[in-house]
Structure prediction request, 236 residues.
Amino acid sequence: MECDNKSGQHVMILERVTLCTGFLLAGLTVNPSLADVSVSDKNAPLGSIAGEMTALLGIEKQLLKRLPNPTLSATALGPKAEDLTRPKPLDYTEVWLASQPVPQGDASWQCLTEAIYFEARGESLKGQFAVAEVILNRVDSPLYPGSVCGVVKQRGGGGCQFSYVCDGRADRMRENEASDRAARIARAMLDGEPRLLTEGATHFHTLSVNPGWSKRFAKTAAIGAHVFYRQPGANG
Prediction:
């Protein structure tokens, strides 16, 4: 089979090297039940095997010579240690989230976890990450308290900034899977994962309502059942 690019050729070479090595190993593996049987018509079968080994090693050497030095070096050395330990980039998938360390943290982590859970647990992963972005954007803004818990529990205007805080219900996260997901999202965002979804949004509302501020603030994103906005001057 012919390959029309260098990458394909390198793969073919490695496959041929592997095949040759496999033949070599097969030649050295002897079935005990056939130990006294020789496939040679001479009285020195080991000499024949040695010759075949030499020929195969010669072929392998020639094939390896055709590999570029970077490819050969990478194949010989394997992946670098830092590549094995470097965290995978955020990709908003369950697989990525499950690959993160078991979440734990301080009061800020607990407050952010609860906010994600109660405000967005029915949303997609992106929808939940987006709510976390809003809270952290407020923390960074001079217009809001400078801590996660301060932002989440802020009151004013006869109510709360986040409805679950003032709904009169006990803030117990009863859905284990949803609470674990929220905890992992909170941990990832507090650890510095980039805010890529809402363009600095400081507000959001569900599609079922239309608050007055939505006419004055810049709309930045719509994710699932939430629409996101950035308050003028929120970025300092």
Q: What stands out?
A: The mean pLDDT is 80.
